[in-house]
Amino acid sequence: MAITVNGVEITDAMIEEEQAHYAETPNPRDSAIQELVLRQLLLQKAQALNLDVSEPAAAIGTLLDQELQVEIIDEAGCQAFYNQYPERFAGSESAVASHILFPLGEGLGQSLAKAKAEGILAEVQANPSRFADLAREHSSCPSGQQGGSLGQFGRGQMVPEFEQAVFSTEAGQISPQLVETQFGYHIIQVNERQAGKPLSFAEVKEQLQQYLNNVAYNNATHAYLTELVKAAKIDGYTMPGQ
Q1: Which of 54, 86, 91, 179 makes the best surface tag, with the fewest CB within 10 Å?
Q2: CA 61 to each of CA 139, 194, 221: distance values in angstroms, whole numbers, following the listed order
Q3: Please, where in the chain does CATH 3.10.50.40 lie?
Q4: Which pTM was predicted?
Q5: What is the pLDDT of residues 13-32, one digit of tens each?
């Protein structure tokens, strides 16, 4: 069955061409149809308001500028949001840590590598002051030449298993167990932990204002399109929320 929007057909050729822009979406065909339907509704609305639609993109831009009721978020609105959601501006927790890395190995080699790593773990737990020397001697990571030091890093900079171990170990302690990642078996020493430093309002104000105004514009656009869909006669396809 053909898809029509207030009597105007959305052809298979149009859908196929539009799909190319949505190849990464879960359902490219649905995404393409919905885009074409909404575009047609906007152009029809622009025509009804006697706007020049010879350049469709420009016409839609003019229409939305004219029709949307968007409340601009001022500095006071930004400050209120900042005060209401302080956890969003807490900054990133960081740590200073060192490690000793042992390759995973294969077959029997994997068992031997893990056994060796567990032996070194027991040694550093009994005598933490030897960590750097043992890293230089045994670590397969280039950081071994610096006593295993990885320097300072924040959340999201290391693989998840490593990060979880670091940020669940107190400063000055060695992780109680080997940590296995795609790189091998790690013995981890956490040298320092720093809580995230809260970002001041001055630091985030400009970016926050842009974000909040984008949200307000997107919400207004969604509401406007929803009303156009409700008022339209669309055959051959059911739009979300129709």
Answers
A1: 54
A2: 59, 47, 11
A3: 94-194
A4: 0.60
A5: 999 999 999 988 889 999 99
